[in-house]
Each structure stands twice: as structure tokens, then as C-alpha cells.
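Notes taken during the Thursday session

The instructor put the following on the board and asked us to keep it in front of us for the whole hour. The protein is LTA synthase family protein. We were told not to look anything up and to reason only from what is written here. First, the residues (630 in total):
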Amino acid sequence: MIFPLVLFGLFVAGYCYCRSIPDLKRESVNRSEKVEQLKMAQGKRITWSIFKGVIFSGIATSLTLVLVRFFGYPYSKALFLTLKRGYPFRPTYVLLTLSLIITLLLVVLFEDRRASGKIRRRDSNFSIFNTVTHTIAVLLVVCSIFIAYSGGWLVFNFGGVSIDQVVYAIVQPLSGTDPEQIKTFIKLVVIPGAALSYLLIVGVIVLHRYKFTRLVLPNFGPRAIIYTARVIGAFAILGFGVFYSVSKLGYQEVKAYFFENSTLFNDYYVEPTTVALEFPDKPKNLIYIFLESMETTYLSTELGGQQPENLLPNLTKVIQEEGINFSNNDLIGGAYQTTGTGFTVGGMVAQTAGVPLNFSDHNTYGKTVPFLPGAYSLGEILNKQGYNQRLFFGSGADFAGRDKYFTQHGDYKIEDYYYAKEEGWIPEDYHVWWGYEDEKLFEFAKASVAELNQEEKPFNFTMLTADTHFEDGYLSENNPQEFGDQYSNVIAFSDQQLGDFLNWLKEQPFYEDTVVVISGDHLSMDRDYFNSIAPDYKRSVLNLILNSETEAVTTTNRTYTTMDLYPTTLAAMGIKITGDRMGLGTNLFSDKPTLSEEIGYDTLNDELGKRSNYYDLKIMKGTNFELLQE
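Then, after some discussion, the predicted C-alpha cells were revealed:
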């Protein structure tokens, strides 16, 4: 979008140049002087016309490209403008040529109508009402532009983003956010949005100086009607911006999320505090490893994934030889993702409390009121049993309220990126990716787990990796590059590091008394990586359980979600669950059907996409529903 700004500079330069040429003076008495002035005036008109042609061509080209993008034609699909496949001209060149031809025709028509008096300069009378309506109209149009660009950015940056992810991201502060996401937002939304807004404002000013007297109906009406029509038109443009953004997220999904109510929680939610739990005589330690964006798609096709070559050989070996993998097929599989669980903190809440994480207009997730005060989590259960609990991140735990959730639901000790700086593990000015890389994370985790084992209490060590976060992951210096793209190399290296960490765990004296749960936090949101997978392939979140105290009735061809891992983890630790259900989760070791199997995954996901009075009142406890009752 720098191109229009350059054109505007040329426009100003050309205007100043042409204004410096004197007009033809009738009072000139010398014939040769008249001829000279006539030539100068003619040159002035030609020069000015050329400059206007260039400027209008640039503006028209920019607007054409923006409209093509707004209406959803990706660059690769713009080949429809080249008439047939293999045409020698690129789509951009075709757009430039068409815009140039159309603009030159418009310039000729404009000059002709101006010369014939059909277009004349406006009077410069000042009007407060006129100024106010102009300001409102411009602001509405600018808002429309930024809303539309933001909708395109969400899809471009996050892929198939859902409305719950968008809403949650909006209400959260920027602290701890990946700087690359902020940079892409500035590059793809702020800069082009500001540039386009600038062009439109300049266009409005220019058009305001001239009016088309013979191209509109005479005596259109009072100025108040014109001013009102102007604002209504701006609102219509704003509506287009909102309409475009909503279309990117899905109209039905947005409608359900904000305007439809579900009774799912009333009908199926099992309050965890009412469930009788029987604990073993000797408690088991728990190490819960959340792997960023880890899913079964990274496996080879013969193993249940979609890759020509297996990117997870270490995890595959552990699953096949000693671990338990609950699969959605007869190969290696995983859990389905639902609304409210498709981002990191939502995925962690789902797997440790059996509920999705939904938005409330009166809940800032631990900033001003408690974080999901009605939820009862794995951490709270273990805390009551005397467990020493620790949360380990290579990023800032304050991002999206993760620290608030785990401290308010289990009194975890936080050892994150900021803790590492305080303890001198990394330099004060050290920052890569989301904080520090996973190579350091796994090494620091070894020391932290060993320290926990020195205490005379069972422990729960929960950690989260970050290198496999979109876009394309973090490629560290020691990352092997065996594959043709960065994300595959990062995923494979994450698998290697996890394998090394598991090998270290197996050598520790506490390993036999420790249940290890390995799970992706959610599906990856990398926008390009999954374009080549089979259309009918069902992506799932990978999971693995080691040293389980409970035998599973069946582990294959299960339909379940990440919320089912909540009671399943407790069962793996040897804890017996009356009824085998907690929250919206089902113990996968039992023969009880999951909620997805009972009512169907699609039905479950659709209902979770709606508002729930029960959720707002009983679990969130911070919405306008509660305030209205006070």
C-alpha cells in the first residue's frame, strides 16, 4: 500500500508544477507573447492530465485489488482474469492493465464534462451540520475498512478460526503475545487499512469540492436529506465491513454463539464436586505434558496421519510398545476438538476441568473476578489430597489468564519465562519466540521435576511446550532440517526432544510411581500446512498415557473430545470414579459411552457453540445473568 502514497506525492508535485505555469492572459498585447503563453497553457493542461491519469490509475488499481481480496478471491484463484490456464500474463498485470484503461476513460469523460460545465466547483460555505455528517461518515467508513481487514487477517493468520477463539482473543491483554502476530496485524491490517482510509478521505475531500449538476436529479431535496443519506450510506458501508468479517467466521456460528441458548449443561453436565472419588492407598505422581498444537495429522498415512513420512517416530514407538493411546480410528488417533477448546488456555481448561472456556461480558478471566469459579478441576482435587503442584512454561504464564486459572484452581507454583529470568536461568534480555525455546524448557524441567521428587509429597508437574506454535514454528539453531518445510522440521525436533525427556524420566527412581500424560493442547492453527490433507480426514489431538493404573476396556474407534481426558487422567492415577463422568467428560478407561458417542459429535459441538445460562450462572459466575438477579 506504499504505492498509493508515492502516487499522492507525485500528485502534489505535479499540481505545484502546473500551478507555477501562468495562465493565458487576455491583456497581452504582443502576438508572440500570446503564442508563447498559449503553448505554456497547453503544456500545463497536458502535464496535469498525465499526472491525474497516473494518480487515478494507481487509486483505481489499489481499490480493484482490495475489492478482489474483499470478495474472497485468493491470488491463486485470480487466474480467472487471465481467461485460461497458462496465459502468459500474471493476474496482477491484468488488473493493472484493466484499471489503467478504465481510469483513462474516466479521466477523459471527467475532462469533457468539466469543460462543458456539467461538473463545477462547489461553494466553500461552512456548515457545522455538513462537517459533522462528513466526520461521522468518514469514521464509519474507516471502521468498516478496519473491520473487514481484521476479518481477512483472522482467516489468513489463523486458518479456520472459530468465533470463540476470536472473542477470547479480543478480551485478553496483549501481554505475552507472540510479537510476530502483532507484526502481521500491523502489516496486514493497520498499514493497508490506514492507507486505504487515507485514500478514501482524500477522495471525499476532492469530490466535496466538485458536484455533478447534470448527472443527478435536479432539486434533489433539502440539504438535511442529503446529509442524512450520506450517514446512512456510511452505515451501509460499515454493515458491509461487519458482514464481510462475519462471513469469514460463519454466519450460523456467530448467530448461535451470541443469540441461541443451549440446555446441554442442564441435561448432561455432571457437577464434579458431587462425584464420589476413591483414592488408592499409595498416590501416584502425575506429569502432564501439553504439547503445543500436537495432532495425529503429523503421523504417516499408514499410522493414521497424513504425512508421506512419519514426523513423530519417538511418540509412535512409545505408543506401540508401552503407552495407551485412545484413538478415533483403528490406528493411532486422538481426541476431537470442540468449540471453546481450540486455543491453549481453552484446551488446558477442557482437559483439566471437563468444560470449554467460553466468553462472558463480565468475566475477565482472573483479572477482576475469579477465573471460572464454578469449575472444579484436576488441580483442586489433587491439591486437597496434599499434592505439590507446579506449572512450567517457557512463555509468560500470564498470557490469556493461564496463571490465574492454575493458581485459583489448585494453588500451582508458577515457573515460567519470568521466573527463569528471576532465577538466572536465562539472561534478563533473553527472548525468543514466546519466551525461551523448548530445548531449554526440557532441560530446565528435568531440574524442576527432580526438585519436586525431593519433597515428601506426591507431585503434579504440568508443562507446556511452545516451539510448534503457528506460524511455521520456531526453528532453533540445533534443529535438524531433514524435511522440505520449516514446520515439519520443528514438529520432528519437538518429537525428538520429547523422546529424550521420556528416556530421562525412565531412568529416574520415581518413574514407576508416576503417571505420564502427553497431549496436544489443541489442533494447529497454521494456515497453509494442512492444505494438502485428504478432505475426509478427521484431524484429532494426539494423546498418550504411560504407567496407567487402570486397564482400558477399548482404546480404538472411540469418538471423544479433549474434555474426556479430565476423568480419564484421574482414572489413570488409580482413582475410581462413581458414574465415570465428571463435567462433560467421560472416563475413557470405562465402558461408558462418551457424550460424543451418546448424542453425536456434531450435535455436541453445535450445542457448545451456543450460549448457556447454566454455564454462565453455575460455572462462569460473572455474567449479566447473575448481575440481574442481585
